[in-house]
Amino acid sequence: MEVVSKLRKLHVDVHVVMTDNATEFINPLTFRSISNNPVTVGMFENPQNWDIRHISLAQKADFIVVAPATANIIGKVAAGIADDMLSTTIMASNAPVLFVPAMNFKMYENKIVQQNVSKLISLGYLFMEPLSGLMACGTTGKGRLPEPSDIIDYIINTFDKKQDFTGLKVLITAGPTKEAIDPVRYISNHSSGKMGYAIASAALKRGAEVKLISGPVNIEKPCGAIISNVNSGMEMYEEVMRQYKDCDILIMVAAVADYRCLSVSDKKIKKSQDNLTISLTKNPDIAAELGKVKEDRILVGFSAETDDLEKNAMEKLKSKNMDMIVANDISKEGAGFCSDTNIVKFIIKNGQIKSLPIMLKSQVADNILDEVIMMKKII
Ligand code: PMT
């Protein structure tokens, strides 16, 4: 009730949907008077207008908050079950959905509930962590509803992010590089470009001017970015060096080949010998070169590791003079190359380390930009 009342004070148009179980605790009339809007409970109530109520509510909503979110509603949405007004509305909406779980701590810890939470997070649903403490059932543990003011802050912050990059120019590298061996073959890696493109899209949404220097990828281009397509590490280096001066923030996501062929054959190499040796030479380290000339620009790098994640990432942060490195352990399922999700740690120049749970690359992107904008404010 307090959440609805606070939102109303902020002049938000709030429509309350209640489950049958919720009406056992609170009379719908109470919400009607606080929200100043009709409250919907049943799927087949007398319609106010000739619309299909769950569809019209779903389309009208800019944001859906499920508070308290029980194990039941989390489980239903995770399983794709839509059998009442709340679950059908969630299912029929494109709006961001925030679940605020509150339940007995044993239920919250239950592996099925946790799997459902992880599944929904990986699908882009938002979650607030429950608080620890004494619960209505008399037990103590993690399962209490967060303070209403924190729920309001979360909602506002999600909206408020919108234009905080206005006036800032962001240069992003993304995707793999291809190092030619001959006219037919090349050396490359598994980068799909998804992580870098997600950062480009998020920065564009938040008002930035985005320059994206992309290796060869096969994904949709972020609408509004100025894109330079390159193939090799050398081409990417030259393009970055040509463009960085005009930018405030440099985010190096590309998986640049560390080595290129010393000489590229202009004819297809024939398989005449049993063994073939190709001599490689080092590519320029773009991030390290930027570290030398960045001045007050913010430089963020990535670190793809299979072992000693923090130690290796920390070394790269220092040796390349970065402000932050986003470390991903690419051996973990749901992290690194090609997947829609990532599991990352932020290793920040001031010594702070922040670990994020598995989330969509679009959400990782927004978290990175949150850190960057904080640094920008401090500088
Ligand atoms: O594209 P996706 O499929 O979404 O996958 C995302 C990703 C796994 C590619 C991404 O999350 C990631 O980890 N990118 C960096 C991969 C990498 O090459 O890391 P590295 O440890 O080799 O390099 C460290 C940093 O230096 C990176 O910021 C890299 O862009 C930069 N670098 C490296 C070599 C080089 N010659 N020039 C560089 O600028």
Describe the structure.
With 379 residues, the chain is of the alpha/beta class. It folds into 2 domains: 2-160, Rossmann fold; 169-268 and 275-378, Rossmann fold (3-Layer(aba) Sandwich). Helix content is 35%, strand content 21%. The strands form 6 sheets. It has an 8-stranded mixed β-sheet with strand order 10-9-6-11-14-15-17-18, sandwiched between helices. A 3-stranded parallel β-sheet has the order 1-2-3, covered by helices on one side. It has a two-stranded antiparallel ribbon with strand order 4-5. The mean pLDDT is 92. The chain binds ligand PMT. Ligand PMT binds next to α10, α12 and β14. Ligand PMT is lined by residues 173, 175, 191-195, 233, 252-256, 258, 283, 285-287, 301-304, 316, 328, 330, 336-338.
N- to C-terminal distance: 41 Å
CATH topology of the largest domain: Rossmann fold
| Rg | 25 Å
Strands, count: 19
The portion of residues forming beta strands comes to 15-25%
- Any ligands, ions or cofactors bound here, and which? ligand PMT
CATH homology superfamily name of the largest domain: CoaB-like
Mean pLDDT: 92
Please, how many domains? Answer: 2
State the secondary-structure class: alpha/beta
Q: What is the molecular shape?
A: elongated
CATH level 1 class label of the largest domain: Alpha Beta
Give a summary of the structure in a few sentences:
The protein is an alpha/beta fold and 379 residues long. The protein is built from 14 helices and 19 strands.
Highlighted features:
Rossmann fold; alpha/beta; three-stranded parallel β-sheet; binds ligand PMT; 379 residues
